[in-house]
Amino acid sequence: MSDFNVVCSCLNVEKDELIEEIKSNNLKTVDDVADETGAGTGCGSCRCTIQEILDDVK
Ligand code: FES
User: Fold this and answer.
1) What is the torsion angle, in degrees rounded to the nearest 10, for the CA atoms of residue 55, residue 52, residue 42 and residue 16?
2) 17-36 as b/e: b if 16+ CB within 10 A
3) From ligand 1's centre to the CA of 21, what distance in Å?
4) Is the beta carbon of 43 within 6 A of some atom in ligand 1?
5) How far does CA 42 lie from the centroid of its chain?
6) I need a surface site. Which of 2, 26, 34, 44 has the fewest CB within 10 A?
7) Ligand 1, atom 2: closest residue by C-alpha
8) What string of pLDDT tens digits covers the 58 residues of the chain?
9) What Å distances lie between residue 24 and 3, 33, 44, 47, 52, CA to CA?
10) What is the pLDDT of residue 3?
């Protein structure tokens, strides 16, 4: 499970990094996260996971 922490493999964005960005920039939507980090701007398959992380952080 060494790749477990990578949420977006297209852009190689890790979960910890996403949580940091969500908290420090008060991101609310998957599009906010995509604009800020690039995660979700490739194939799009990670967008559900990004939403779950947003729900967790709220
Ligand atoms: S895995 Fe995130 S856009 Fe493809």
Assistant:
1) 80
2) bbeebbeeeebeebebbbee
3) 17
4) yes
5) 12
6) 2
7) 8
8) 445 699 999 999 999 999 999 999 999 999 999 999 999 999 999 999 999 999 999 8
9) 24, 12, 23, 20, 18
10) 55
Substitution site in 45, 48, 49, 51 for ligand 1 pocket (most atoms within 8 Å of beta carbon): 45
Ligand 1 centroid distance, CA of 2 (Å): 17
Whether 34 is in the pocket of ligand 1, judged by its Cβ within 6 Å, is: no
CB atoms within 10 A of CB 15: 17
6-57: CATH topology is Arc Repressor Mutant, subunit A (1.10.10)
